[in-house]
Each structure stands twice: as structure tokens, then as C-alpha cells.
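Protein chain data
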Amino acid sequence: QAVSVCGNHEWACLGKLDVRWFNEAARAAILWTQDRLSFSDLDVLRRWPLTTTEEAVTLVHGSLSHPDRFEYLVDLAQAVDTVKACRTAYCVVGHTHVPIVFEYNGSTRQMARVLSSAGELAQVCLAQPADGMRYVINPGSVGQPRDGDPRASFAILDTQAKMLTIRRVAYDIAGAQRKIREANLPELLAWRLAVGR
């Protein structure tokens, strides 16, 4: 069964985050989505937590230190705050739409940017949690990558083998752009799919 957490767009669709917090294009997409969500759709979204833990993995959209603020984890200081708030070896986040891995063992901090634009996958060997290493992992985005690679980005985290695989998959960008334009949504939302920004 799929495990989901609320992100800023779901939170806004539920009326828990002011749409004025968003840029004009994102605001238009949220309002368009709100008009199309059924009562049962909204009921499903209401059941999604801001954070959840499954075995050795914690999930949150932004940061664990302030999950309802939907902070972007783009530097080590922010990642360290999330690691310190995390009770598991792995914390998987989203929000930036950029695949990245932050490593932290309590004293040594490292940031390894995982980009796989040259191929279909990138793999990272992870240290044993018993060694004190903790990880904040962003798999990128299936719907709107923002690292300059327009292919969908997702991750497979194997906690037994201690291996993280970031995969890139081509999809019908032109078809997605056509649907965005047919819905009369802002052109930026269609344009950015082709450039991965």
C-alpha cells in the first residue's frame, strides 16, 4: 500500500495554506485543481499526514523541523536541522524537485548532489546506520523536475543493501504540455516541463 504525505499544494487545496503564499502560476494550478477535486478526493487528502515513518524511513515534504512551513532543503544547515529532528536513519523529502543526498554523521557533514542527466540512473552506496551516518534524500520529481533534466526522476531506496538508486525516465512531455494549455493554465507550467526548471 502506498504511503503518502501532504505537500504544500495538497495543503493549499485543503485550505490549510493561503494560496497567496504561491507564485502566480502555482496559484492558478491550485485553484484549477480545487475546482476539480471531489469530496472523496478531499477526504483522502485530509487523511495524509505532514510526516510519517515506515520502519527505517521518515517521510516529509519539506523539512522535519517545520513540516507545516514547507521549507526548501537546499543547504547543509537546513538538512542538519532535519537530521536532528529525525528518529530514523533515512529521511526522504521533496519540495525542491532536485535529486540530492545529504550525509551526516554528527560531526562530518557532506552533500553529494546526485544528477543523472547523462544516463538513466545514478547509484549511491550508503554507509551502515550503525556507523552513525544519517541521510536526507530527495528523489527529485516525477511531475516537474527542476535540475535541468526534463525526464521524470524517482528513487529506489534499498535499506537492506544500503543502496540508493535515482532513476530518470522519459515521458510524453509534449502531451503533458498540450493538456496544460488546453486547461488554459499559465504557459510557464507547460514551458518548464521541457527544460526541467
User: Anything to note?
Assistant: The helical segments are 8-13, 24-34, 39-47, 76-85, 173-182, 187-195. The CA atoms of residues 15 and 34 lie 9 Å apart. The two ends are 31 Å apart (CA to CA). The mean pLDDT is 89.
